[in-house]
Prior knowledge:
12% strand, DNA polymerase, domain 1, 3-stranded antiparallel β-sheet, 3 domains
Amino acid sequence: MGVKVKERPKGSGVWWIFVDHQGRRKxxxxxxxxxxxxxARKIEAKLALGDLGIIEDKPKAPLFKDYAELRLxxxxxxxxxxxxxxxYQDVLKRHINPTLGKRPINEIKRGEIRDLLLKLNRNGxxxxxxxxxxxxxxxxxxxxxxxxxxxxxxxSGITKKLQLRRDRKIEIEPLTTEEVRLFLENCQAHAxxxxxxxxxxxxxxxxxxxxxxxxWGDIDWHGKFIRVSRSYKLGRMxxxxxxxxxxxxxxxxxxxxxxxxxxxxxxxxxxxxxxxIIDIIFHRGGKPMEQNYIQRVFKRILARSGLxxxxxxxxxxxxxxxxxxxxxAPVYV
Length: 333
């Protein structure tokens, strides 16, 4: 066993400790000569007691971006919705990795996270987006804490102390009964192929993904209801947002429109020699319609109808508003 203290290079004032123990060597730069001698004395005492920590090579902590990708692909992708996975992936790429991505996960300090969140706040990001950034940072750090790579999660509770401004609430202006009638009339005149879909949206209040995921087998013609059990987005069928299956009632007007669509689809299938119709009710060329496509159609019909621009999601609020105005109990809505 040998622990030596040397000045390297001579006359530089820089002192090193050289350890040679059981064929294993280690060198470490220390401050002045006094500090080096004191450290060497402590190292000798530890080696005599069998503590080999000073000469053992500790595995390097992973970089934050690598650890975050492991969690994203190993946990978020399998346990959360596809839209959540893509949102987290985008937040990592745009807001987190440029600042923290190349930092070893055990070297990230609470102050760094705080400064990043404050910077995003100054750049105009909403409070909800900043909280999402916090969550995407905190997730991998929480896993690292569980695996004993770090002593604490430096992102824990950090947004409470930042006193970020509250987001402005999005003002929802549901369409009136007359405006819904005007929209549907223009849809029937200028985009009749989409009339059943928009009628279904206004008459059932389904989410857009649920609407696009509907199949003919979901309709109970006799019971006059639709069984809502799935959602479609970006090429993937998933369970509904809540993960629950529910029933929505159909009006006679909606039943008539969907029945006419079913008959037309069956006639087209027979004409093409297919026999069976496509399962998806609202499709485009045999494939489910993408959300951005139907949203563009929705905006075009709003403009043609001379109506203010609203989100397609606001059709749900329109449905609820019209039910309440008709005296339907809030618990049903």
